[in-house]
Design brief:
Blueprint lengths: L11 H6 L1 H35 L1 H8 L1 H4 L12 H11 L4 E6 L8 E6 L5 E6 L6 E5 L5 H11 L3 H28 L1 H9 L5 H25 L6 H11 L6 E2 L19 E2 L24 H10 L7 E3 L7 E5 L10 E6 L5 E6 L5 H13 L6 H28 L21 H13 L1 H18 L3 H6 L5
Parallel strand pairs: 5-6
Antiparallel strand pairs: 1-2, 1-7, 2-3, 3-4, 7-8, 8-9, 9-10
């Protein structure tokens, strides 16, 4: 396949001879069209990612009446079991799923509950006075909405697929962007020296992209395990080989899930009893004279070296256990859960990072970096700068196109002309094919685009002119 360098009337000899320019325009064209799908999604992901990154600063400001408390002089915190009783009295018919200790002396105790109609709510309790301050649906807070948007655009399975496709094409944008950056550096310098219109913006876009591209590639790779198609398929393959991306702790009979809970390990699940998997349980037929409670579970966790604030998943039934999850927000290697008998208070089993398969350990570390928490404040501020740079890229890219777009009515989009020389460059064809096989949704959408281009756009003159496509 030959590449087109200039307008429709250019000589074919020039097309073949000017190979570098052909590659440049071909990559520019793919970069240009990928942006139509990628930029809106990437802008949304960067914005919601920023909100998620600062959720522990944002939500206490928006819900100070629930999340912040004042410590009265001379008062000490009430037992967690007493606070639990207050929650049960205030939320009749609700099932209390878990409790998370206050993250500081000025913070509330948080109880996650499931109401009678199936709604999940976080109930906030003043730990000193022991009274219920109120509750909210964590999915309907600003941060909760950002998390849902970040994952599936609030469109369920369809939204998940759209986000995954955009992530795949963001890889194309990053790869083609690096080619344009290195091959176009001389032209950009020449345009800046000539003080050409838009030269400064174009250079800033390219320079920022050269740094941001590495982060985009990492975030895409580290975010793939969450995806509904690629992630699910890889997990299926890993499970069949005796491994897993997500370490499943089979010891708990509760699900302590809250979208705002920073103490929970994101790399392993604490599910209800799983099929025929043997799970440790409390013995309701044993010695009932010593009945443990949530305070017992916290004391056991403290005695075994778990970090505060802990999250306690309450027993799901008479045979359930208290699952005590230690705080390991910044370091997944410290993730550890103790399962405590609800009657005698003995540790039935433990589960932690050292028990994860190697694949799950890798995913756990990747997630911590992805969420900006692995390296403490440094990771957080680097992630903030990255998100802001992505937003800058998403604004400057369309701005450059808008300035240079054809002003004549009916002139089309003003897309660069050029085709990837797949037939004449086997190595490139192999790379594209390998990427399509590794990312099936990318492969399917790429095939769809190529078929539309070959059998519809190039054969229809108005469409060919609009999209500036070679015949």
């Amino acid at each position: 396949m030959t590449t087109t360098v200039s307008g429709p009337g250019a000589a074919s000899k020039r097309e073949v001879g000017n190979r570098g320019s052909g590659w440049f325009r071909a990559f520019w064209r793919w970069h240009f069209y990928a942006s139509f799908l990628v930029i809106p999604i990437l802008l949304l992901l960067a914005t919601t990612g920023l909100i998620y990154l600062f959720r522990f600063q944002i939500e206490p400001l928006l819900h100070a009446d629930l999340m912040k408390v004042a410590q009265p002089a001379g008062l000490i915190a009430q037992p967690y079991s007493s606070q639990l009783d207050e929650v049960k009295a205030a939320m009749p018919g609700a099932t209390v799923v878990s409790m998370t200790e206050p993250s500081g002396p000025d913070r509330s105790t948080v109880f996650s509950v499931e109401t009678a109609d199936g709604e999940g709510r976080d109930v906030f309790v003043d730990p000193y006075e022991g009274k219920v301050l109120g509750s909210l649906n964590p999915d309907k807070t600003l941060s909760g909405a950002a998390i849902v948007l970040h994952g599936n655009l609030m469109a369920g399975r369809v939204g998940e697929v759209v986000v995954e496709i955009a992530a795949c094409w963001a890889l194309v944008m990053a790869i083609t962007g690096y080619y344009l950056f290195f091959r176009g550096r001389v032209a950009r310098a020449r345009r800046r020296a000539a003080r050409a219109a838009g030269a400064v913006l174009r250079s800033r876009h390219a320079l920022t992209g050269s740094v941001v591209g590495i982060g985009v590639l990492f975030l895409i790779v580290s975010g793939l395990p969450w995806t509904g198609f690629w992630g699910a398929k890889v997990q299926e393959i890993a499970s069949s080989q005796g491994s897993s991306m997500w370490s499943e702790d089979h010891g708990a009979l509760s699900n302590p899930t809250s979208t705002l809970d920073e103490s929970l390990p994101h790399s392993h699940t604490v599910p209800w009893a799983l099929g025929d998997t043997k799970v440790p349980r409390s013995d309701p037929n044993g010695d009932r004279r010593s009945v443990a409670n949530v305070d017992t579970a916290v004391a056991v966790g403290d005695r075994n070296g778990l970090a505060h604030p802990m999250t306690i998943a309450l027993p799901g039934d008479e045979e359930g256990v208290y699952s005590v999850i230690g705080y390991a927000f910044q370091n997944p290697a410290k993730e550890r859960t103790l399962h405590v008998d609800q009657y005698g208070g003995a540790v039935v089993s433990t589960y932690g990072y050292q028990d994860y398969p190697l694949l799950a350990k890798t995913v756990a570390q990747g997630i911590a970096l992805h969420e900006g928490r692995r390296l403490g404040a440094l990771n957080m501020w680097l992630t903030t700068a990255f998100c802001l740079a992505v937003i800058f890229m998403c604004i400057t890219g369309p701005t450059m196109w808008w300035r240079r777009r054809p002003k004549t009515p009916g002139a089309g989009l003003g897309a660069p002309r050029g085709r990837l020389p797949l037939k004449t460059t086997p190595a490139l064809a192999i790379i594209v094919t390998a990427l399509a096989l590794f990312l099936p949704l990318f492969g399917l959408t790429l095939l769809t685009v190529l078929l539309l281009d070959r059998y519809l756009i190039r054969r229809t003159t108005p469409l060919r002119n609009y999209f500036n496509t070679t015949p």
